[in-house]
Every structure is written in C-alpha cells, then in structure tokens.
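Sat 14:20. Reprocessing the chain from the morning session after the first attempt stalled halfway. Input below, unchanged.
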Amino acid sequence: MKKPTLTLPKLCLAFIFLLSASLFSCSDAGSSADIELPFPAEHYEEALDGRLIVLISEQIETEPRFQLRDDSKTCQGFGMDVEGWQPGEPLQFDSEAFGYPVRSFSDLPSGEFYVQVLFHKYETFNRADGHVVKLPMDRGEGQQWNRAPGNLYSTPQKVSIKNGQLPSLSIKLDQKIPPIEEPEDTKYIKHIKIKSKLLSDFWGRDMYLGAHVLLPEGWETHPNVKYPLAIMHGHFPSDFGGFRTTPPDPDLEPDFSERFNVEGYNRIVQQEAYDFYKTWTGPDFPRVIAIKIQHPTPYYDDSYAVNSAAQGPYGDAITYELIPYIEEQFRGIGEGWSRFVYGGSTGGWESLAVQVKYPKEYGMCFAACPDPIDFRAYCLVNIYEDDNAYYLEGPFKKELVAGHRDYLGNVDASLRDMNYRELVLGSKGRSGQQWDIWEATYSPLDEEGYPKRIWDRVTGKIDKEVAAYWKENYDLAYILKRDWAKHGEDWKNKIHLYCGDMDNYYLNNAVYLAEEILSETTAPYYNGEVDYGDRAEHCWNGDHENGNHISRLRYHRMFIKKYVEKVRNVAPKGADLKSWRY
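Finished this time. Tokens:
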C-alpha cells in the first residue's frame, strides 16, 4: 500500500485534467465550467487518448498536480476521459465531470484559486486475450501520473470563482514532462533490464522487467562462490536506495517529515544509508545478493508479483524469467531454499503471495505491514458479508467507513473519499492508485477487458460474484487454510508476519485473522512468526526498539540476518551454507 503524499500545509482545490493544459486567458464568466484546450501541436502530431485532469488549489508553493491527497489538505480535482483527440481540434472540458472532494463545479466555494490542467497519456494495447484496452504505459517513473515523461501540463494560473462559476478559460498545455535518466552502475550496484517473453506475448508489445542488484563484499575476489538471493518486494525503485558509500552531505538543508513528525529526516535517511554500507561491507554481515525488482504495469508502479487476468503473468515472469537470469548473471545458488523474500505494505503482501503461490520456489518470506491478506478484513470491509464498502447503515443512520487513522485512532480520511480521489484520476481502474491496483490484481475482466469492480465506485455496493473470485484466487489466508494439506510441508518454517496494531490502514485486522489460521495448522505446524508493534503505525516491521521512521530504513539488515539464522530449517541436506559466509 502507498502512503498518501503528505506535502502541503493548506487546503487546495484542484481540478486535474489528465489530457491538456497550460496557459489560460480569462474572459467573462460563463457556465460553471467553460474550459477549452487547444490541441498541443507543439508536443504531439498524432491523435491522443488519455485522462484530462483539472486541479484547483488555494496556493502554489507546490504545484497543484502534487496536491491531490486523501485528507482535508487536498486540492480539488475533476477528471474526464479523452479518446481520439485530433490535431487541430480544441477540446471542451466536461462540465459534468466527476470531482473530488467537491463533486460538482457548481458547488465550488467562492474565492481566488490557482488552476492547473494535466493530460495523462494513454496507449492502445492489443492483448493476447483479444481485448483492446487503452492504458497509461510506464515510462520509467514508476507509474506516477503527475511525473510521467510525456505527460503534458499547464502553468498554474490564478482565477476567481464566484458562486460556483469559473471564468471562461482557454488553457494551453505548454509543458511536457521530460524523460528520466537511467541510473549508472557502481562497484556494488548493478542494473539489469530484460525483455519478458511471457509479458510481451500477453500485452502484444515488448514488455520489460528490471532489477537493481546489490553485490556482496568480496563478490569479485570469490569467483567460485554462489550466493543466496535476498529479494525485496515493494513499490517501483528508481535505484537501490538506502545504500550510500559516502557520509551524509554536510551541506544538506534539513527538511521536515510530516509523515513522521521528524525534523531533518533527509539527513537521517542519508546517515542510515551510509551505516548500511558499512554494515554490508563489514566482517560479520552475511554475504548474499540483494535485489529490488522493477515491474511496473499499465495499472500501477508494480504488478503485485502474481499472475492476474488484467495484468498478465507477472508472477511467472518474475519467478521463471527474471530471477533465474539474475542468478545466472551474478552467481546465485539458484534453488528455492536459497531465495527469500521480504518487504513492507505492498511488498509485504507480495512477499507472502509469492511464498503462497510458489511454495517450492522461495525459501522464506518476511511480510511486514502487508496489504490485506484476509479479505474478511479488506481494511475495514468484509467483502463477503458486508453489502456496502462506504457506509455502516442502520434503519435510521448511515456512517462513513474510515479509511486512514493515526496511532491514536484519529481518522483523517474515509474509504469513500479515497476511492473518489482515484475516480477523478482514472475510470475503468486506470488511476494508477491503491484501490484500483487491488482490482487490477484480484478481479476477473469485464466485457471491455478492464478489471471488474469489487464495488460500485460511486455507491460502494459490493459485487458478491467478484468477491467470490477474489476469495478463491487471492485471499492469501483463505488459500493457506484451503491448501494446507497439499502444501503445508512446503510452507512450514517459511511464513513470518509483522504489523503495528495501530496500522494507519487497519491492516492489522487481516493479520489477526491470518494468525488464527496459522496457529491452528497441524501436520505440519507452520512454525513461523507473527508479531505486533504496540501503537505502531503503517510500515512497522518487527523492530521493537526503534520508531517506524528508522526501522523502515533497515529492512535489508534486519531480514537478511533473520533468514541466515533460520536457513537450516529450510535448506535440504547437503546444501552449501558455508562458502558464502566468509
């Protein structure tokens, strides 16, 4: 799960047009939303498909495109689909477009605001299943709509809104996001990228997987040694972050982390990265190969590392194409027991999922603060028993379901509004955000080839047929219980779960349910670990001595050591447990 962006101090009303925007001239007030965009001929010559997003903000210390968020500090956004925008043709923004947090242009407050428009470009995919879909291809940024190279946006302009009326605007998309530079290899960190046949066949175009590889100290001077592979799952990594061979920058201006309420957090991050380098190269640290995988999809910054109807065979591509390639190139042992997975949040779910889906191919998983691993607690929704995801309803009262809290239980976002924000950013599951990727991963396809909704995005009404499909294919706790007699011998000694009991997204509720299932296993007993952090928020990973802001930076050193301590429980007789311990 992604932590919401927390960068702004004020309320911002943001209209995001993910298709065209830039400079605009104002005339007399017209309808509630009279916004016209000329075709961006200086940037593109061909017809365009995509999402047009209008953002309205109270301030521009940060551009409106970076201000849309789940809590009360959000700006306003409106979104509309664009198909076949032809060169030379101006585009009129839909005045009835869905908005968040204010639903309609006519309900906007009066005042002085800044308007910015962004166009999120889509590509047409002719998939092997026969469906033709339009989706945003990742362009090296990790599927971020407001940072994606090739997307267009306008310069923010100040406008007056009165009684829900905007002035007539002609907005030009005058800026284009530039390409992203690839990271360079160093002594310790190597970068690889391979074309996946499995994914290319599915998507009907070339598709790639990548990884950042951290080599152990002495790798070059021990050419006959083969190493275990430490696989960290998680969101799209631009490089192997958290590893720094030089001390912190003395001239670095300290910043403030709103998320952790810590001054100078950027300095702490650099110090932790340097400390990890010293630990990694020190005499007592296990010698393993550590990797971070790049597997963005047209739906999200990573695939959730499993096969799915909407995204294709990412689980097989990672397990049978990417990982064997890395092991061959960098002298991995190349056996199931010697590969272990770990990660937090999205990476926590992925770590448990690949251990469950590929019981013999991975030797151990350490899943911290995992996304919902039991759909009876899909955050605060039981998709099997609840009728509506957004509301708790009685005969006389209806309450919103909470979506995000702090460690004291203070709620700052509802589940409904979190979904509404995504609905502004994209229809048909194309927002590139959290609730949409869960559907893109877990759902069957609708008639058009997009993921079926688990619930109606406007009303919250749950689709029980989709829920039944989720249960049989991706409810990890249920699958463990259902298939324990079949795979228990391959799962024992391998499953380790960690979660704060005040997780911001209520993810601990699913861990409680999964723990009940694991604790009742017999023949064999699961013989793993489940641990909770007292009042710990999202990202807690089993560290009872440090706060989240520190422990989240120590995944590698924590879980590599844990694996080495437990590897004898999963390694076959005669396995090499010594040569890589120099």
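Confidence is low (pLDDT under 50) at residues 3-30.
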